[in-house]
């Protein structure tokens, strides 16, 4: 195993070697090729940018959650989700990123968004966390679908995972 491999043992301990005795991680890293260190710095910068972008995204989705709760809208919007999944799969393919990976990553984000939207709805007076009434509280919202599949990764007829009723915003 090389120092570049960051595998974990079954106990969760890192198998990456420790810096040599008496040397800091920075001193040990200087033994690595400069190109590798430069690439890692770039990756670290991208990771930081992703964190900031995710924080910004969740700031907006929190606002959407408050608006949905205020207007009695459900946390999920299946029609928007379907459009967004196809749009992001296309963007991923164009960027030479595996569309299946992009969809899985999006799924993880959306699960968090829905959880946040439900929490917001609960805090704004809906104990079940779902806005089951239409605007003005006049009965069920037409076309709302708040069911979530037990296994969102279960393949559909195309062999891809089925799209659960996520909301993208």
Number of strands: 0
What is the N-to-C succession of helices and strands? HHHH
Q: Could you tell me the mean pLDDT? A: 72
State the major sheet.
none
Structural class by sheet pairing and helices: mainly alpha
**Strand residue content:** under 5%
Low-confidence stretches: 1-17, 127-167
Helix content: 40-55%
Number of helices: 4
General shape:
elongated
**Estimated radius of gyration:** 22 Å
Task: Tell me the distance between the termini.
Answer: 42 Å
Could you outline the blueprint of secondary structure elements for this entry?
Blueprint: H1 25-29, H2 34-70, H3 78-94, H4 99-123
Helix pairs in contact: 2-4, 3-4
What can be said about this structure in brief?
The protein has 169 residues and is mainly α. 50% of the residues lie in helices and 0% in strands.
List keywords for this structure.
mainly alpha; about 170 residues
Structure description:
This protein is mostly helical and about 170 residues long. Helix content is about 50%, strand content about 0%. It has four helices and no strands. The protein has helices spanning about 25-30, 35-70, 80-95, 100-125. It is elongated. It starts with about 25 loop residues before the first helix and ends in a 46-residue tail after the last helix. Mean pLDDT is about 70; it is low at about 1-15 and about 125-165.
